[in-house]
Amino acid sequence: MKEQVFTVIKRDRVLFAIALILSILITGWYLYIHSFDLNTTERIRQLWGSMYQVMAIFGCIIGFRASKKWSGYKSIIGNAILFFSIGLLLQSFGQSVDSYYNFFQNQAIPYPSMGDIGFFGSVIAYIVGAGYLLKATGFQFIVKSMRKKLLVVIVPLIVLISCYLFFLQGYTFDWSNKIKILLDFGYPLGQAIYVSIALIAYLISRNYNLGAMKWPLLFLLIALAFQYFADFTFLYQANANTWYVGGLNDYLYFISYFSMTLALLYMGGVRRILPEL
Amino acid sequence: MVTATSIYNKISLRIVQEQAVIVGSLAWEIAAKVHGLVIVNNEDVAITGISKTVINDLVIQFEKVFGTFADDVCKHAVSDLLPELPTEDIPTTLK
């Protein structure tokens, strides 16, 4: 595994270096902003909040490039990478719309807004990508024993029930705004679906020999877990009215874009070395 | 009449095509490394070596990339073709 990681990083060292430098700059800026009193930094936090999506855009370009190497929509792995890249692009679209309200209009982000096309669209893209990833980890061949079939039922059930208890218990329906209801349910349930698929993929394939593809696929699953952690934190903070622009949750989103970028970069790099095995 | 050679050709083509569904053109690149297997325009294959050995080598090459998963994909891909061969002629990697 170590040898594979070193070879991939060595061959794509320029792109890995760009991702790393971007992450250091954005993290440094975040820490600098947070060394001041929160009430005095609103404009600069808004600016930071509108800038860190550069990592999502970089990751998306890297992902499209990697997907093409894996034959794009013509292969299962190419499709998985393609949909994760589309997810990043949609996240970036949502971030841009939010930033427009925040930074240029200097007003609170309306909900629902155009940005939700990006954010909700990214949830759908991640579900589709996770589905392809599940296929790429040999789901169809492994899930034969009763224990594993049970896992496929139990994992999503636990995640969906937890998500309901956390975010939707006691929900008050306002039928005058049907899109809001759709999004209020769609975000936590959609996120629960993609993380369930990722968890199933990990749990059923962890003892299955995936050869040289084990670590590249695992990196994508880890990146998806980071994305879920950021999404979960956003919903939690938004429900508790503790979310603010340029705060910890935005930084978690940045980390999730960074980890997805690294995973996509790795997938593209590993494609180059596999024919040499 | 279906000859053993044409069944072996079908088996090797099916294996590469099924692997290509998962990994795309990489499957053809991997197949091209197998001695005794000729790749035609990334859409067809022709066995020029000893058929059983070529198919065994092909499966082993895919195993290097995708481990047991590749093995399972290969076996599943050709499960309907194997009964056309006498048991002793079935490549060991597909048994």
Describe the structure.
The complex is a heterodimer of chains A (277) and B (95). Chain A contains eleven helices and no strands. Chain A is 78% helix and 0% strand. The radius of gyration of chain A is 19 Å and the shape is globular. Chain A has one domain. Chain B has a two-stranded antiparallel sheet. The radius of gyration of chain B is 12 Å and the shape is globular. Chain B has three helices and two strands; from the N terminus they run ααββα. In chain B, α1 packs across α2 and α1 packs across α3. Chain B has one domain. In chain B, β1 and β2 form a beta hairpin. The N and C termini of chain B lie far apart (25 Å). The interface between A and B is medium-sized, with 24 and 21 residues.
Helix-strand layout with pairing:
The complex is a heterodimer of chains A (277) and B (95).
Chain A: H1 2-11, H2 13-33, H3 42-51, H4 54-69, H5 76-104, H6 115-136, H7 139-142, H8 146-168, H9 178-205, H10 214-239, H11 248-273
Helix pairs in contact in A: 1-11, 2-3, 2-11, 3-5, 4-5, 4-11, 5-6, 5-11, 6-9, 6-10, 8-9, 9-10, 10-11
Chain B: H1 4-23, H2 26-32, E1 37-40, E2 44-47, H3 51-77
Antiparallel strand pairs in B: 1-2
Helix pairs in contact in B: 1-2, 1-3
Which overall shape of chain B is indicated by the principal axes computed on the Cα atoms? globular
Query: Whole-Å distance between the termini of chain B?
Result: 25 Å
Binned, the helix content of chain A reads over 70%
Helix content of chain B: 55-70%
Count of DSSP helices of chain B?
A: 3
Unreliable parts of chain B: none
Shape of chain A: globular
Could you give the order of the helices and strands of chain B? HHEEH
β-sheet strand percentage of chain B? 5-15%
